[in-house]
Amino acid sequence: MDDHSWMYRDSPQGLRRMDYCNGVQGFINFATSIPRNFTGGDIRCPCRKCENKKYLHQDVVMMHLLHKGFMENYQCWYAHGEVFVSESERRMEETVVGSTSSASNVHEAANDNTNPYRNMVMDAMRMNQGNGSQCPIVEEEPNVDAARFFDLLKDSDEPLWDGCTNHSKLSAVAQVFTIKSDHGLSEAGYDKIIEWARSILPEGNRLKENFYAAKSMMKPLGLGYQKIDMCPNFCMLYYLENAEMTECMTCEHSRYKPRTGRGKTLVAYKKLRYFPITPRLQRLFMSPRTAAHMTWHQAHHAVDGVMVHPSDGEA
To answer: Tens of pLDDT along 74-94?
Structure first.
């Protein structure tokens, strides 16, 4: 991510400084250089009023930014294709191509897939919006799910603390989640580790404070499941033609626990969490990194006369 500190500097009343005007022009040049930013010929407006929720003509966007300023905490232009680049990567890039002082000379990393966590969010976004070819958010006013994905995009680019070059807000939570899963860590154990980690991290760090907060943050990335009531003795499922039954047809055990008070909702003794296969296969084909593996059996080229995999055979 380039240095956009010019975006939030104070300016004289009624007159923006020249560096801010040049910076706004640089932003417009950057945003209009990426085709996927356009919807009906317009781009998202990141001013304080629109907050990336409206698509407007680039000239109108410029006027909004000059008069109203940028929305809060938009140093990384994540809704316009910019990705977070660590300080070490930025210094390496400047060594190769030479540093520039103009705000219009933004880095080309915005068109690269250099952030795997951003890619993860984009794959999930395409899956949920049903669009695999372009940026899926096309409504002028984003719905709740779209807003959550934009928050995740921001988290994938936002450093864990100011000056951190190793982890973003999203990557830290994702990796701790992986450790919890791999080692069977309890929620209480997770919370204790996070409490200790936050105590040794710099002040103002953005690590989620507990498992509940981290789970809420990661929820949009997950694949849903269906809850189905079942007999506590594993005799049957209350599903399809049996969905309205209140006791097991085999052992006659009650489906619901006794009510403990007036107006209480019915609570089943046991629930099955069913993970439908179709959306999971769709997710595998939606990501370009996993789609190649899913189509390998048909796409790979066998060596003539040599069978190294069952898919090489005629059967």
So the answer is: 888 888 888 755 444 455 444
